[in-house]
Write a structure and sequence with these properties.
Blueprint: E1 18-19, E2 23-27, H1 30-41, H2 47-50, H3 62-74, E3 79-85, E4 91-101, E5 106-114, H4 123-138, E6 143-149, H5 153-162, E7 165-176, E8 179-189, H6 193-204, H7 219-231
């Protein structure tokens, strides 16, 4: 744990452009990204089952999606980052920096929506690596959070795969789609980041993929090997 005797806090997250090997993170621009997100990344009304565990009601069309995304940015301070596949140029998903607490160095990643084109590819892993790296290395945050509906097993599985630590269930935390939401909380912290970063970079290396684009080693296995070496 770092010495906090002279802690001054962190800057609040701002929209940022980050280039990766497989994916580019772009600050949300309504004129550029709204229609590609709705039509290309999420398949129009197919977005509703994709965002089953989001708290807002189902979208009736692009206008409702636009109104919601504009509201969470303006009223809740979400910083929306759009994921673009560098190989195809297509918009494939998004995530947001949320509930930033610069004074304590804490921020959450949420509103995560991966379109089908991100499935079974390095895109989602690299996107979240880049978002975490920006938080820890560029902004100097101490804690990076991931929260989801306790029934959202895919999200919980993804959080663990990425290296977030499960911290527990907050019972009756929110009302979501007119029902109760118990929330699963996960985090990664700055002291863990060097090992997590090394695992991400090992997994994302082109050498970790065969000629069919399939992984040779799982991210979890790389991380476990690095942790064993660190403890030796």
């Amino acid at each position: 744990m770092r010495d906090l005797a002279n802690w001054k806090g962190c800057p609040a997250p701002q929209p940022v452009l980050i280039e990766g090997r497989y994916v580019r993170l772009e600050p949300y621009d309504r004129a550029v990204h709204l229609e590609p997100l709705w039509h290309d990344a999420f398949g129009g009304l197919a977005i509703n089952p994709l965002l089953k565990y989001f708290t807002q009601d189902d979208f009736s069309g692009i206008e409702a999606f636009d109104a919601w995304l504009s509201a969470v940015q303006a009223k809740s301070g979400w910083i929306t980052e759009v994921f673009r596949d560098r190989a195809t140029g297509s918009v494939v998903g998004m995530a947001n920096y949320m509930r930033a607490d610069p004074a304590n160095g804490v921020v959450e990643v949420g509103g995560v929506a991966h379109g089908p084109a991100m499935a079974r590819s390095p895109l989602s892993t690299e996107a979240h690596y880049l978002m975490a790296r920006h938080v820890f290395e560029d902004l100097g945050y101490r804690r990076y959070e991931w929260k989801c509906h306790s029934e959202n097993q895919p999200s919980r599985t993804t959080a663990l795969r990425l290296g977030f630590t499960f911290e527990g269930i907050f019972r009756q935390h929110m009302i979501s789609k007119h029902g109760n939401r118990d929330t699963a909380w996960f985090s990664m912290i700055d002291g863990e980041w060097p090992l997590l970063k090394a695992a991400f970079e090992g997994w994302l290396s082109p050498d970790n993929f065969d000629s069919e684009g399939l992984q040779k080693r799982r991210l979890e296995d790389i991380r476990a090997e690095l942790a064993t070496k660190e403890q030796a």
